[in-house]
Amino acid sequence: MSAELRLAGTLDLGHGSVPLDAAFALLDALARERSVQGTARRLGVSYRSAWGRIAAVEAACGQPVALKTKGHGSVLTPFGEALRAALAETFAATDGVISAARGRLDGRLAVLLAPAPARLRLALSHDTLLSAVARTCPGIDVSVAGSAEALAKLASGAVDGAGFHFGERAPRPGSPFAAVFAEAEIRVVPLFLREQGLMFARGNPLGLGGVADIAARRARFVNRQRGAGTRLWFERLCAEAGVRPEAVPGFDTEEFTHQAVAAIIASGAADVGMGTRAVAARFDLEFLPLGEETYFLATRSGAQHPALEGFVGAVRAQARHEIGYAPAETAPI
Prior knowledge:
Elements: E1 10-12, E2 17-19, H1 20-33, H2 36-43, H3 47-61, E3 66-69, E4 73-76, H4 78-113, E5 120-124, H5 128-136, E6 140-144, H6 147-156, E7 161-164, H7 178-182, E8 186-200, H8 211-216, E9 221-224, H9 229-241, E10 254-255, H10 258-267, E11 272-276, H11 277-282, E12 286-300, H12 308-319, E13 325-326
Parallel strand pairs: 5-6, 5-7, 9-10, 9-11
Antiparallel strand pairs: 1-2, 3-4, 7-12, 8-11, 8-12, 8-13
Helix pairs in contact: 1-2, 1-4, 2-3, 5-12
Protein backbone atom coordinates (compact mmCIF):
# COMPACT_ATOMS: atom_id res chain seq x y z
CA MET A 1 0.00 0.00 0.00
CA SER A 2 1.40 3.37 -1.03
CA ALA A 3 0.18 6.76 -2.19
CA GLU A 4 0.94 8.18 -5.62
CA LEU A 5 1.64 11.92 -5.59
CA ARG A 6 2.61 14.06 -8.56
CA LEU A 7 2.79 17.70 -9.54
CA ALA A 8 -0.48 18.70 -11.17
CA GLY A 9 -2.01 21.89 -12.45
CA THR A 10 -2.62 23.69 -15.71
CA LEU A 11 -0.50 25.62 -18.11
CA ASP A 12 -2.30 28.86 -18.97
CA LEU A 13 -0.48 31.63 -20.88
CA GLY A 14 -3.55 33.73 -21.56
CA HIS A 15 -4.89 31.83 -24.58
CA GLY A 16 -6.33 28.73 -22.91
CA SER A 17 -5.08 25.98 -20.63
CA VAL A 18 -3.68 22.45 -20.82
CA PRO A 19 -2.69 20.06 -18.02
CA LEU A 20 0.82 20.82 -16.82
CA ASP A 21 2.06 17.23 -16.71
CA ALA A 22 0.55 16.44 -20.12
CA ALA A 23 2.23 19.48 -21.70
CA PHE A 24 5.63 18.51 -20.28
CA ALA A 25 5.25 14.86 -21.31
CA LEU A 26 4.46 15.95 -24.87
CA LEU A 27 7.32 18.44 -25.19
CA ASP A 28 9.84 16.08 -23.59
CA ALA A 29 8.82 13.20 -25.87
CA LEU A 30 9.12 15.39 -28.97
CA ALA A 31 12.55 16.63 -27.88
CA ARG A 32 13.75 13.05 -27.43
CA GLU A 33 12.12 11.44 -30.47
CA ARG A 34 12.42 14.38 -32.93
CA SER A 35 9.34 13.12 -34.75
CA VAL A 36 5.62 13.15 -34.12
CA GLN A 37 5.42 9.44 -34.96
CA GLY A 38 8.04 8.64 -32.30
CA THR A 39 6.31 10.98 -29.86
CA ALA A 40 3.02 9.13 -30.41
CA ARG A 41 4.69 5.78 -29.68
CA ARG A 42 6.34 7.12 -26.50
CA LEU A 43 3.06 8.54 -25.23
CA GLY A 44 1.04 5.49 -26.27
CA VAL A 45 -1.35 7.46 -28.48
CA SER A 46 -2.13 7.60 -32.18
CA TYR A 47 -0.23 9.81 -34.63
CA ARG A 48 -3.34 11.94 -35.10
CA SER A 49 -3.84 12.28 -31.33
CA ALA A 50 -0.23 13.41 -30.92
CA TRP A 51 -0.78 16.20 -33.44
CA GLY A 52 -3.97 17.12 -31.60
CA ARG A 53 -2.04 17.49 -28.36
CA ILE A 54 0.59 19.65 -30.03
CA ALA A 55 -2.18 21.86 -31.37
CA ALA A 56 -3.75 22.15 -27.89
CA VAL A 57 -0.45 23.26 -26.32
CA GLU A 58 0.17 25.77 -29.10
CA ALA A 59 -3.35 27.16 -28.68
CA ALA A 60 -2.77 27.61 -24.92
CA CYS A 61 0.60 29.29 -25.50
CA GLY A 62 -0.47 31.41 -28.45
CA GLN A 63 2.55 30.37 -30.54
CA PRO A 64 4.12 27.28 -32.15
CA VAL A 65 6.01 24.75 -30.01
CA ALA A 66 6.85 22.27 -32.80
CA LEU A 67 8.33 22.69 -36.25
CA LYS A 68 8.34 20.21 -39.15
CA THR A 69 11.74 19.80 -40.77
CA LYS A 70 11.82 18.50 -44.30
CA GLY A 71 13.12 14.97 -44.26
CA HIS A 72 14.04 15.18 -40.56
CA GLY A 73 10.73 14.82 -38.74
CA SER A 74 9.68 17.45 -36.24
CA VAL A 75 11.55 19.38 -33.58
CA LEU A 76 10.72 21.88 -30.89
CA THR A 77 10.76 25.54 -31.72
CA PRO A 78 13.06 27.74 -29.62
CA PHE A 79 9.99 28.70 -27.60
CA GLY A 80 8.96 25.06 -27.26
CA GLU A 81 12.45 24.07 -26.10
CA ALA A 82 12.57 26.90 -23.59
CA LEU A 83 9.14 25.92 -22.27
CA ARG A 84 10.19 22.26 -21.98
CA ALA A 85 13.31 23.28 -20.05
CA ALA A 86 11.29 25.49 -17.68
CA LEU A 87 8.81 22.68 -16.99
CA ALA A 88 11.63 20.14 -16.55
CA GLU A 89 13.30 22.40 -13.97
CA THR A 90 9.98 22.82 -12.14
CA PHE A 91 9.30 19.10 -12.00
CA ALA A 92 12.88 18.38 -10.86
CA ALA A 93 12.64 21.03 -8.14
CA THR A 94 9.43 19.53 -6.74
CA ASP A 95 10.45 15.86 -6.97
CA GLY A 96 12.17 15.88 -3.58
CA VAL A 97 9.32 17.69 -1.88
CA ILE A 98 6.73 15.35 -3.37
CA SER A 99 8.81 12.27 -2.53
CA ALA A 100 9.14 13.38 1.10
CA ALA A 101 5.43 14.14 1.31
CA ARG A 102 4.63 10.73 -0.19
CA GLY A 103 6.81 9.04 2.42
CA ARG A 104 5.05 10.87 5.24
CA LEU A 105 1.63 10.07 3.79
CA ASP A 106 2.53 6.41 3.36
CA GLY A 107 3.56 6.29 7.01
CA ARG A 108 0.31 7.86 8.18
CA LEU A 109 -1.75 5.56 5.97
CA ALA A 110 0.11 2.50 7.25
CA VAL A 111 -0.87 3.42 10.81
CA LEU A 112 -4.47 4.20 9.87
CA LEU A 113 -4.98 1.04 7.84
CA ALA A 114 -2.98 -1.37 9.98
CA PRO A 115 -5.11 -4.19 11.36
CA ALA A 116 -6.08 -3.62 14.97
CA PRO A 117 -4.02 -5.69 17.39
CA ALA A 118 -5.80 -8.74 18.71
CA ARG A 119 -7.57 -8.01 21.99
CA LEU A 120 -6.67 -9.91 25.15
CA ARG A 121 -9.61 -12.19 25.95
CA LEU A 122 -10.01 -13.07 29.62
CA ALA A 123 -12.59 -15.22 31.37
CA LEU A 124 -12.47 -14.28 35.05
CA SER A 125 -14.14 -15.63 38.12
CA HIS A 126 -15.90 -12.57 39.47
CA ASP A 127 -13.86 -10.12 41.51
CA THR A 128 -14.55 -6.41 41.95
CA LEU A 129 -10.87 -5.43 41.94
CA LEU A 130 -10.24 -7.28 38.69
CA SER A 131 -13.31 -5.77 37.04
CA ALA A 132 -12.26 -2.24 38.03
CA VAL A 133 -8.69 -2.67 36.73
CA ALA A 134 -9.84 -4.28 33.47
CA ARG A 135 -11.97 -1.23 32.70
CA THR A 136 -8.84 0.95 32.76
CA CYS A 137 -6.75 -1.32 30.52
CA PRO A 138 -7.22 -0.86 26.76
CA GLY A 139 -7.36 -3.87 24.50
CA ILE A 140 -8.92 -6.27 26.99
CA ASP A 141 -12.24 -8.11 26.73
CA VAL A 142 -13.48 -9.63 29.98
CA SER A 143 -16.25 -12.17 30.50
CA VAL A 144 -17.34 -13.27 33.96
CA ALA A 145 -17.43 -17.02 34.53
CA GLY A 146 -17.07 -19.45 37.35
CA SER A 147 -13.56 -20.79 37.93
CA ALA A 148 -14.31 -24.14 36.29
CA GLU A 149 -16.00 -22.50 33.30
CA ALA A 150 -13.15 -19.99 32.89
CA LEU A 151 -10.57 -22.79 32.76
CA ALA A 152 -12.73 -24.74 30.31
CA LYS A 153 -12.81 -21.70 28.01
CA LEU A 154 -9.02 -21.46 28.18
CA ALA A 155 -8.66 -25.15 27.34
CA SER A 156 -10.95 -24.77 24.31
CA GLY A 157 -9.07 -21.71 23.02
CA ALA A 158 -12.06 -19.41 23.49
CA VAL A 159 -10.00 -17.08 25.72
CA ASP A 160 -6.35 -16.21 26.29
CA GLY A 161 -6.45 -16.29 30.06
CA ALA A 162 -8.60 -17.66 32.90
CA GLY A 163 -8.91 -16.23 36.41
CA PHE A 164 -9.73 -18.81 39.06
CA HIS A 165 -9.59 -19.59 42.79
CA PHE A 166 -10.62 -22.45 45.06
CA GLY A 167 -10.39 -21.28 48.68
CA GLU A 168 -6.73 -22.06 49.33
CA ARG A 169 -3.45 -20.20 49.14
CA ALA A 170 -1.71 -22.91 47.13
CA PRO A 171 -2.68 -26.14 45.38
CA ARG A 172 -2.25 -29.45 47.10
CA PRO A 173 -2.89 -33.02 45.96
CA GLY A 174 -6.61 -33.48 45.61
CA SER A 175 -7.48 -29.78 45.72
CA PRO A 176 -9.77 -28.37 43.01
CA PHE A 177 -7.95 -27.62 39.76
CA ALA A 178 -4.71 -29.22 40.99
CA ALA A 179 -4.25 -30.73 37.53
CA VAL A 180 -4.10 -27.24 35.99
CA PHE A 181 -0.87 -26.47 37.83
CA ALA A 182 0.73 -29.65 36.50
CA GLU A 183 -0.05 -29.01 32.82
CA ALA A 184 3.10 -28.18 30.84
CA GLU A 185 1.13 -26.11 28.34
CA ILE A 186 -0.46 -23.93 31.01
CA ARG A 187 1.29 -21.21 32.99
CA VAL A 188 -0.31 -20.21 36.29
CA VAL A 189 0.66 -17.09 38.23
CA PRO A 190 -0.79 -15.72 41.48
CA LEU A 191 -2.45 -12.32 41.22
CA PHE A 192 -3.31 -11.52 44.84
CA LEU A 193 -4.59 -12.81 48.16
CA ARG A 194 -8.14 -11.98 49.12
CA GLU A 195 -10.26 -12.59 52.21
CA GLN A 196 -13.60 -14.35 51.99
CA GLY A 197 -16.19 -14.95 54.65
CA LEU A 198 -19.85 -14.90 55.54
CA MET A 199 -21.82 -11.72 54.81
CA PHE A 200 -24.95 -10.89 56.80
CA ALA A 201 -26.89 -7.90 58.14
CA ARG A 202 -25.31 -5.51 60.60
CA GLY A 203 -25.64 -6.70 64.17
CA ASN A 204 -25.71 -10.36 63.11
CA PRO A 205 -29.37 -10.79 64.05
CA LEU A 206 -29.26 -14.60 63.77
CA GLY A 207 -26.06 -14.88 65.80
CA LEU A 208 -24.19 -16.76 63.07
CA GLY A 209 -20.71 -17.87 64.09
CA GLY A 210 -19.82 -20.23 61.28
CA VAL A 211 -21.05 -22.51 58.53
CA ALA A 212 -22.71 -24.97 60.97
CA ASP A 213 -24.94 -22.21 62.35
CA ILE A 214 -26.45 -21.56 58.90
CA ALA A 215 -28.11 -24.98 58.88
CA ALA A 216 -28.79 -25.08 62.62
CA ARG A 217 -30.58 -21.70 62.67
CA ARG A 218 -32.28 -22.15 59.30
CA ALA A 219 -30.70 -19.00 57.91
CA ARG A 220 -31.63 -18.29 54.31
CA PHE A 221 -28.43 -18.79 52.30
CA VAL A 222 -27.51 -17.45 48.84
CA ASN A 223 -25.06 -19.68 46.97
CA ARG A 224 -22.86 -19.17 43.93
CA GLN A 225 -23.30 -21.03 40.64
CA ARG A 226 -21.93 -24.53 40.09
CA GLY A 227 -18.22 -24.48 39.24
CA ALA A 228 -17.59 -21.19 41.06
CA GLY A 229 -14.53 -21.22 43.29
CA THR A 230 -16.50 -19.68 46.16
CA ARG A 231 -19.11 -22.46 45.94
CA LEU A 232 -16.36 -25.13 45.97
CA TRP A 233 -14.90 -23.48 49.08
CA PHE A 234 -18.28 -23.36 50.82
CA GLU A 235 -18.93 -27.03 50.01
CA ARG A 236 -15.57 -27.93 51.53
CA LEU A 237 -16.38 -25.92 54.65
CA CYS A 238 -19.71 -27.72 54.92
CA ALA A 239 -17.96 -31.09 54.70
CA GLU A 240 -15.43 -30.06 57.35
CA ALA A 241 -18.28 -28.93 59.64
CA GLY A 242 -20.29 -32.12 59.05
CA VAL A 243 -23.13 -30.21 57.39
CA ARG A 244 -24.98 -31.77 54.47
CA PRO A 245 -25.49 -29.21 51.66
CA GLU A 246 -29.17 -30.05 51.40
CA ALA A 247 -29.56 -29.08 55.05
CA VAL A 248 -28.61 -25.47 54.20
CA PRO A 249 -31.76 -23.46 53.35
CA GLY A 250 -31.25 -21.83 49.96
CA PHE A 251 -28.24 -23.95 48.99
CA ASP A 252 -29.69 -24.26 45.48
CA THR A 253 -30.30 -20.50 45.19
CA GLU A 254 -27.53 -19.41 42.82
CA GLU A 255 -26.07 -16.04 41.88
CA PHE A 256 -23.14 -15.34 39.54
CA THR A 257 -21.24 -12.61 41.38
CA HIS A 258 -20.28 -11.59 44.92
CA GLN A 259 -22.14 -8.34 44.38
CA ALA A 260 -25.38 -10.12 43.45
CA VAL A 261 -25.16 -12.21 46.63
CA ALA A 262 -24.52 -9.12 48.75
CA ALA A 263 -27.36 -7.19 47.12
CA ILE A 264 -29.89 -9.93 47.95
CA ILE A 265 -28.75 -10.00 51.58
CA ALA A 266 -28.82 -6.20 51.81
CA SER A 267 -32.39 -6.22 50.46
CA GLY A 268 -33.52 -8.61 53.18
CA ALA A 269 -34.45 -11.38 50.74
CA ALA A 270 -31.76 -13.64 52.24
CA ASP A 271 -29.85 -13.82 55.53
CA VAL A 272 -26.35 -14.92 54.62
CA GLY A 273 -23.99 -15.67 51.78
CA MET A 274 -20.30 -16.06 51.12
CA GLY A 275 -18.21 -13.32 49.52
CA THR A 276 -15.24 -11.00 49.82
CA ARG A 277 -14.66 -8.46 52.56
CA ALA A 278 -14.53 -5.70 49.94
CA VAL A 279 -18.03 -6.47 48.68
CA ALA A 280 -19.43 -6.77 52.23
CA ALA A 281 -18.05 -3.30 53.00
CA ARG A 282 -19.52 -1.89 49.79
CA PHE A 283 -23.03 -3.09 50.76
CA ASP A 284 -22.61 -2.18 54.45
CA LEU A 285 -22.89 -5.81 55.57
CA GLU A 286 -21.23 -7.44 58.52
CA PHE A 287 -18.38 -9.78 57.63
CA LEU A 288 -17.24 -12.95 59.38
CA PRO A 289 -13.87 -14.00 57.90
CA LEU A 290 -13.44 -17.64 56.92
CA GLY A 291 -9.95 -17.43 55.44
CA GLU A 292 -7.67 -16.11 52.72
CA GLU A 293 -7.23 -17.57 49.25
CA THR A 294 -4.99 -16.90 46.28
CA TYR A 295 -6.57 -15.71 43.07
CA PHE A 296 -4.69 -17.21 40.09
CA LEU A 297 -4.43 -16.38 36.39
CA ALA A 298 -3.81 -19.20 33.92
CA THR A 299 -2.54 -18.61 30.37
CA ARG A 300 -1.07 -20.79 27.66
CA SER A 301 2.68 -21.18 27.97
CA GLY A 302 4.60 -19.18 25.38
CA ALA A 303 1.52 -17.32 24.11
CA GLN A 304 2.07 -13.99 25.84
CA HIS A 305 -0.22 -11.18 24.74
CA PRO A 306 1.24 -7.63 24.72
CA ALA A 307 -1.47 -6.40 27.11
CA LEU A 308 -1.00 -9.18 29.66
CA GLU A 309 2.00 -7.87 31.57
CA GLY A 310 0.46 -4.43 32.03
CA PHE A 311 -2.83 -5.90 33.24
CA VAL A 312 -1.17 -8.21 35.77
CA GLY A 313 1.05 -5.40 37.03
CA ALA A 314 -1.92 -3.08 37.50
CA VAL A 315 -3.90 -5.75 39.36
CA ARG A 316 -1.02 -6.55 41.72
CA ALA A 317 -0.43 -2.87 42.42
CA GLN A 318 -4.11 -2.22 43.19
CA ALA A 319 -4.27 -5.23 45.55
CA ARG A 320 -1.90 -3.38 47.90
CA HIS A 321 -4.49 -0.67 48.52
CA GLU A 322 -7.88 -2.42 48.59
CA ILE A 323 -9.60 -3.60 51.76
CA GLY A 324 -9.60 -7.38 52.02
CA TYR A 325 -6.73 -7.85 49.55
CA ALA A 326 -2.99 -8.39 49.90
CA PRO A 327 -0.08 -9.10 47.54
CA ALA A 328 0.49 -12.73 46.72
CA GLU A 329 3.85 -14.35 46.18
CA THR A 330 4.47 -13.08 42.67
CA ALA A 331 5.93 -14.68 39.61
CA PRO A 332 7.10 -12.98 36.39
CA ILE A 333 4.75 -12.97 33.40
